[in-house]
Design brief:
By secondary structure, this protein is of the alpha+beta class. It contains four helices and nine strands, in the order αββααβββαββββ. A hairpin with a 2-residue loop joins β7 and β8.
């Protein structure tokens, strides 16, 4: 197994800006990969899901079994939340364009938010989605509090694990951020977070 050759083939897909491979990770995988996604890789997962991404990448990697770990340039969660990081979902990718943000968030069935909600049929509560949108907006847009008001709040489709959500945070007016959780082109929830002046 030539890891350098496999790494080159994976980078050639255009889905990765960096990738590091490590051999022999039990159980059931030939390699472990720590990778940073490009915009193209991010968009593929957002549009078609993690399974489609793994399928496309698998053909480039000669069908080698790979356990993926995705990293971002910096952690987008507020520092105060990191003390209880077990309550936070993994952020697989973070794109910023003109001050607006797109984040891929992995919804693992082992997250504590699914305990009791509901046994045998886990569903991600809408209030948890709102909580995560508020936390990430605080860090990425420079607010130190939760929003003063929430407007145009809609919960449209259930979030059932395992899945990957794309959270889009868009500044739509002065101190107003629109959030939207999507997966594979389907909107799960959206609304507008209204803030006071950010602290300087």
């Amino acid at each position: 197994m030539n890891m350098e050759s496999i790494s080159e083939q994976l980078l050639a897909t255009g889905f990765f800006s960096s990738i590091e491979l490590v051999p022999r990770v039990p159980p059931g995988h030939d390699l472990a990969a720590t990778a940073r996604l490009t915009g193209a890789g991010h968009c593929l997962i957002a549009r078609e899901g993690l399974q489609a991404f793994r399928s496309q990448v698998g053909s480039a990697a000669r069908e080698v079994s790979i356990k993926w770990h995705f990293i971002t340039a910096s952690n987008p969660w507020p520092v105060a939340t990191l003390e209880r990081s077990e309550r936070l979902p993994a952020v697989l990718s973070h794109l910023e364009v003109e001050g607006n943000h797109r984040l891929l968030i992995e919804i693992d069935p082992g997250l504590c938010w699914f305990e009791g909600h509901f046994p045998g049929q886990p569903i991600l509560a809408g209030v948890v989605q709102l909580h995560w949108a508020g936390l990430l907006t605080q860090k990425l847009f420079g607010y130190d509090k939760y929003p003063e008001r929430i407007a145009r709040l809609k919960f449209q489709h259930l979030v059932v694990p395992p899945t990957v959500l794309e959270l889009m945070l868009t500044s739509v007016a002065r101190h107003v951020v629109h959030f939207r959780f999507d997966s594979c082109g389907q909107c799960h929830s959206q609304g507008r977070l209204n803030y006071n002046e950010p602290d300087s």
